[in-house]
Each structure stands twice: as C-alpha cells, then as structure tokens.
Specification:
With 277 residues, this protein is an alpha+beta fold. It has two domains: 124 residues, Alpha-Beta Barrel (N-terminal domain of MutM-like DNA repair proteins); 129 residues, Helicase, Ruva Protein, domain 3 (Orthogonal Bundle). The chain is built from seven helices and eleven strands. The protein has a five-stranded mixed sheet with strand order 2-9-5-4-3. Strands 1-7-8-6 form a four-stranded antiparallel sheet. The protein binds a DNA duplex (16 and 16 nucleotides) through loops.
Length: 277
DNA sequence: ATAAGGCCCTGACCGC
DNA sequence: TGCGGTCAGGGCCTTA
C-alpha cells in the first residue's frame, strides 16, 4: 500500500533514471486510469515531453515536464510504475505504457485499477484539499491540535483524512498511534496536549523511518505488494510493531496485538500499551 | 461542518 | 477440482 514513504522512495529512485529522458510515445489500455486529460488525448499530449523535476506531495508523485505541465501519479492501493526494457510485453494489469528515448519504458501496472494519472498544466487543482506536509515545518503541533478540537471521530479515522495531514495511510497510522501510546478509537477531540505532541512526533518519526527503509512491501499476496521502480521490495515491513501482527505478542509488553475495524479499515493496536481511557 | 457508509476493482481465501 | 461468497482498502461521493 503506497503511502508517503513509498511514494517518496519512488520519486527518489525515478529521478536518476528519468532525468534527461524524453517520452517518445504512450499507449493507454484502461482509460479510467487517466484522470486528465481524456484518455484518448493523453498519448499525443505526453509524447515529446521531457522529465524536469521530481517531487512528492502527500501520496502524489509530481513529475514536472519540460513544457511546464505536471505528470501526477497516485498509486492508490496496488499501483506500480516500473522501469522495464522496451521489448517487455504489457501484462494483464498494465494499463499505461510510456516509451522513453533510451530503450526503456515506464509501465503503469495496477491490479485493483484504483490508481490515477493526471497530465495537467496546473498541479494545484489536483492537490488543493491536502493538509500540511508532515515532514515539513508547515506541520505544526499547535495547528494539528487546533484541527482536532471538538472532533468526535476516532483519531485513527482522522489520521487517514488527507485534509488533516497529507500522506498517512493505514500502515503508518497504526504504527504512529502505537508509538504515541494512543488507542486508535479515541475521539480526536479527547486527546490531551501531551498526547497531541506525542502523536505529532510519532507521525513524523514513523514516516521518516519508512523512508529510510524505502517503504513497506507486504509479503504473501502479490496483489498488495508495493515494489520500487526497479522491481525491488522495501524493508520497513520488518520493523512493524503492530500492523498485521494480530494475535502476536506486543514487542514491548507481550500482550497479544488486537485487531478492530475503524473507518472500514483494519486497525491494529496493543490493548495494554494503548489503553482506551 | 462533521460523520458514516457506499462505491470502484479483482486476487486471495474459505467452505462445501 | 470447481464454484460462490466474502474481504481488503484510498479517495471520492452521497446521505444524514
């Protein structure tokens, strides 16, 4: 599940591969992957453009093109943007192929088909609703706390809301709440100033750790596997303290990790380290 | 304004 | 072996 650390890893690893490269042609096999422009216009619009800049905002990849437009990619659940030899045939889950001028191609592959690609003159429209960038100075404790005042929704659900803070998904929300010793079902507005400070720090710490380990690749199901542009996995799954550890002993206190559902998302926590009250 | 639920998708998994 | 049913899950949309 690509979240902020996985997308950051993508941007960092794509930059050396794509800097100076030009897209010579593109093909779209599943038109709904292209959010903008119309899918049938996408190949003609992107052909001839070069890659200039490489940035990330929340879970969005921002690839600045040579005409000033931005190729925005959101991988959602199972999206991958793979760098492959041009002779590689697209498989059944490859929805967009972009040919490069050096004999390589970019394959957008996504079994769930939830991911979206935009090619837009102005990136701000797509990103308009995002909250602060959690690893930047703009993510401030006081503002974070102010946004929680009066909120009755579970703090886990609020962390998943990209308007509160951008880039946190199911994995890193659970890991941050554990590190902050906060029960995921607590009402957002019930957090004390000390808890808000701990959670603010935990969100930053866990995202930074995820980036250092180049993201999380979930084992077992090939479906949900996040893979880096070269096809390699990340390492952060080996540092999970609660995520998908249901029934296994808490690494701090030994209590079996519990699983509940919050906001239609599986949620993992330690009942001892993260008491409800 | 906020909260909650449905929807999009399809491979994995389960029970018979 | 095969089949039907259920589940997961980010962001967007609708409903209350």
């Amino acid at each position: 599940m690509p979240e902020l650390p996985e997308v950051e890893t993508y941007v960092r690893e794509l930059e050396p591969e794509l800097t100076g490269r030009t897209i010579t042609a593109a093909r779209v096999f599943w038109s709904r992957t292209i959010a903008e422009p119309l899918a049938e216009e996408f190949p003609a619009r992107i052909a001839g453009l070069g890659f200039d800049t490489f940035e990330r905002r929340g879970k969005y990849m921002l690839l600045g093109m040579s005409d000033g437009s931005t190729l925005i990619v959101h991988l959602r659940m199972t999206g991958k943007l793979l760098i492959l030899p041009s002779e590689r045939e697209p498989d059944k889950h490859t929805h967009v192929v972009m040919e490069l001028d050096n004999g390589l191609t970019l394959h957008y592959n996504d079994p769930r088909k939830f991911g979206r690609i935009w090619l837009v003159p102005d990136r701000t429209t797509v990103l308009a609703k995002l909250g602060p960038e959690p690893l930047a100075d703009e993510f401030e404790i006081d503002d974070f706390g102010a946004r929680l005042v009066g909120r009755t929704a579970p703090i886990k659900a609020l962390l998943l809301d990209q308007r509160l803070v951008a880039g946190v998904g199911n994995i890193y929300a659970d890991e941050a709440l554990f590190r902050a010793h906060i029960h995921p079902g607590r009402a957002g507005g019930s957090l004390t100033p000390d808890e808000i400070e701990r959670l603010h720090a935990a969100v930053r710490d866990v995202l930074a750790a995820g980036i250092r380990r180049r993201g999380s690749t979930l084992g077992g199901s090939s479906l949900q596997n996040y893979l880096r542009p070269g096809g390699l996995p990340g390492d952060f799954q080996n540092e999970f303290l609660v995520f998908r550890r249901t029934g296994q002993p808490c690494l701090v206190c030994g209590t079996p990790i519990a699983r509940i559902v919050i906001a239609q998302r599986s949620t993992h926590f330690c009942p001892t380290c993260q008491p409800a009250f």
